[in-house]
Amino acid sequence: MSETSFLPAIENASPTEILTYQNSRLTEALNYLSNNSPFYQEMFLKNSIDPSKIRTIKDLINIPVTTKYDLQQRNEDFLCVPKSQIIDFITTSGTLGDPVTFAMTNQDLDRLAYNEAISFTCADGRKTDIYQLMTTIDRRFMAGLAYFLGIRMLGAGIVRVGNGIPELQWDTIQRIKPNAIIAVPSFILKIIEYAELHKIDYRNSSVKRAVCIGEPLRNINLSLNTLGRKIKEKWPIHLYSTYASTEMGTTFTECSAGTGGHHHPELIIVEFLDDDDRPVKEGELGEVTVTTLGVQGMPLLRFKTGDICYHYTEPCSCGRNTMRLGPVIGRKNQMIKYKGTTLFPPALYDILDNIDFISSYVVEVFTNQIGTDEILIHIGSNFPIEQKEKDIKDHFRAKLRVAPLIKFQTNEAIGDMQSLKTSRKPIKFIDNRDK
Length: 435
Description:
The protein is α/β, with parallel strands linked by helices.
């Protein structure tokens, strides 16, 4: 299979052709749900919906949205095949509530591999690459498995090191000489710190690219945020930001232009909705809402992800005409109303990541005595920095016009707060508000 075979023709088609194609795939998806999904059969009946009359993406407005609460409460009713056809069981991370189980058939695993193969191709991936996987492939985690399957389909090499252990990461890089890594961006800073401490010439290592997951690398204007800039200043490798979720089984990955994650029209229909479940215009923030295509086990219709993003439709310099997704501004359930200002956690992270003397942190939100949101930031450092509290608050006032409460702790204490046994990645945000 040639290296260019994973650039689907539909991604270079005209916007009109892409829309026509997606409308036809929507009809297939609705037929499948009406024949196989207990949850959606009930929804169609309860709301007097005739799926055959939903012919275009614009018609989707006539169908109620599906929520994370629906998945949590009616999990098994989303299953469209007998359990005997299930090959792999996966759970969501549970960031916005209890984890949800997803069941995948052989066909779903093939779709997942295809998604990652075309996504790695978007991020300049080639058959000759060797990728070092710095995320877990176990613990019911979809992403690690997806990367392995996708790289295998691409025909490239992969070395499965898993998360953490900087010493093992560098030993592997020096032994196997991968030219690309797959990692959470904040962990890249940790392996840089380890390399500097142990006199490893990381800037001249074999690694030239990083496919980054789990944390945004860009600001609203698509420039690198503080985290992205810190990595690039230390290690001038090419960074590719990605966005994905277990529920959609699809990835939005940047090309080398770095202007948003590209949509794969053959795998997913995407809407951007306001609080009233109405489509927003381009240039307005909307909640990413997806209808999966080609999923056999647990397909979803108008599923609201909880992620708030901008989207872009002008053609990309790479030649693709697909819609592009901007960085996640925040998650709807994590929105904070603080002293008259609406905030999302990433805005707080960007300020904290830009303060050099802060080694680690956790943002806690709770309900105060008068019933409003309060922000407490737990800060760790390698040396006493209590005298820096005013400086930290001044940074927040300069950027956000408000300053949170500050509590200084040891790095060990912050590490304990970040390392919940049920979580696959470090916790940065704790929501203790009254529900």
